[in-house]
Amino acid sequence: MNFQKLADDYGTPLYIYNFDYMKERFLELKDAFRARKSLICYAIKANSNLSVIKNFADLGSGCDCVSIGEVRRAFKAGVPKYKIIFSGVGKRDDEIKEALQKDILLINLESEAELKRVEEVAKELDLKARISIRVNPNIDPKTHPYISTGLHENKFGVDIDTAKRMYILAKNSPNLDPVGIHFHIGSQLTELNPIKEASEVVANLVRELKVIDIDIKFFDIGGGLGIVYDDEVTIKPYDYVQAILETISGLDVTIMCEPGRFLTANAGYFLTKVLYEKVNGDKRFVIVDGAMNDLLRPSLYNAYHKVEVLNDNKEFSKANIVGPVCESGDFFAKDIEVPKTSHDDLVVIHSAGAYGFTMASNYNTRGRVAEVAIEDGKDRLIRKRESFEDLIALEKEFLEK
Ligand code: LLP
């Protein structure tokens, strides 16, 4: 990839996504499911740029959404309504109403109280809401605690007994149609066993439900497939699918999954430029023009992202790579060996295609950066850089005259 040319043409900081890589990952996963009816619903929270969503939609992907804003994005990008699902622990009435009116595939319920709300809204609209229930199988996914979701101590889903009660309520309601079941135990998973265990627990529940005449059609295994940021040994899509298939033998269901990171993380680069170097005592800092507001993962999770300085300098020493934001937590890497840098040297931060731009903010009145797609060897802008005018657009009318 010609980072220098991209920096010259679009400026820095900049997000760059390799659309061909994203397609390869999607097709690899789809192929692993080939023995079964399956639907991949890309989790657009990972990277919700409309062009990214369209890139997957064109390959037949559906979307997993967690707000009505994401549902609207999915529609805008051309995802058919029967491939859109809506999850999340706290959906508002207006979100439920719009999702039902839009007739999406299903709403994924995360509590008994929410079931009542959805039933109420569906009744007002005089329709039958297709629902699934997110089961919390109480299994430790062995990942970072902030992105672990399948334990009872986490806020997500409902325990097995509650789920059963909810399915029975739904079956007996004229306004609810229980068609799916769902679990998602965490993100950046690198061990297969917890996923398999969770799938077993949930598949057994499907079997129990069948006995009482509740016929589950969609078996949604969530997202979470881990990727290589550093030297992780990750789960192969084929092994992942085989492990799940073993747990659902005899069940006539469409398997759904909701990958986000797996499809986009390693397609993305965050490109930033060196502003200055400085030494405080014996600590060396390389200050770049990107910051924690652009890519939050290192600051929030202490996450590792490979950082590469693009120059030929042979003089290496340890440095912290930091941004201009007024927080000590504003860093991309700490104590890594990097060459001596000069003003305008480029720095590439790898694996930035998932939870990068979507977690960006305007902190310090920094406009969110531009996004560029690379496809078939050509680059194109897919989101403009935010200007100062964009940042104040919703406030300036309130200034006192
Ligand atoms: N499905 C559900 C219900 C989810 O909660 C998530 C992610 C996914 C699918 C997609 O998971 P993935 O395949 O991307 O692992 N900001 C964090 C990740 C938060 C994940 C939240 N849920 C990070 O930067 O690591």
Q: What features would you describe in this structure?
A:
This protein has 401 residues and is α/β, with parallel strands linked by helices. It has 2 domains: 3-14 and 266-391, Lyase, Ornithine Decarboxylase, Chain A, domain 1; 19-264, TIM Barrel (Alpha-Beta Barrel), CATH 3.20.20.10. Helix content is 29%, strand content 24%. It is built from 12 helices and 17 strands. It has helices spanning 3-10, 19-32, 50-57, 68-76, 93-101, 112-124, 160-171, 192-211, 237-247, 261-264, 297-301, 388-392; strands spanning 14-18, 38-43, 62-65, 84-86, 106-109, 129-134, 176-182, 218-220, 254-257, 268-280, 283-288, 307-310, 316-322, 331-339, 346-349, 370-375, 378-383. The strands form 2 sheets. Strands 1, 10, 11, 12, 13, 14, 15, 16 and 17 form a 9-stranded mixed beta sheet that branches. Strands 2-3-4-5-6-7-8-9 form an 8-stranded parallel barrel, surrounded by 7 helices. β7 (176-182), α8 and β8 (218-220) form a beta-alpha-beta unit. α8 runs parallel beside α9. The chain starts with a helix and ends in a 9-residue tail after the last helix. The mean pLDDT is 96. The chain binds ligand LLP.
* Name of the CATH class of the largest domain: Alpha Beta
Helical proportion? Answer: 25-40%
Number of helices: 12
Give start-end ranges of low-pLDDT stretches.
none
Global geometry: globular
* Percentage of β-strand residues: 15-25%
Number of domains: 2
What is the annotated CATH architecture of the largest domain? Answer: Alpha-Beta Barrel
Task: Tell me how many strands there are.
Answer: 17
Bound molecules: ligand LLP
Query: What is the CATH H-level superfamily of the largest domain?
Result: Alanine racemase
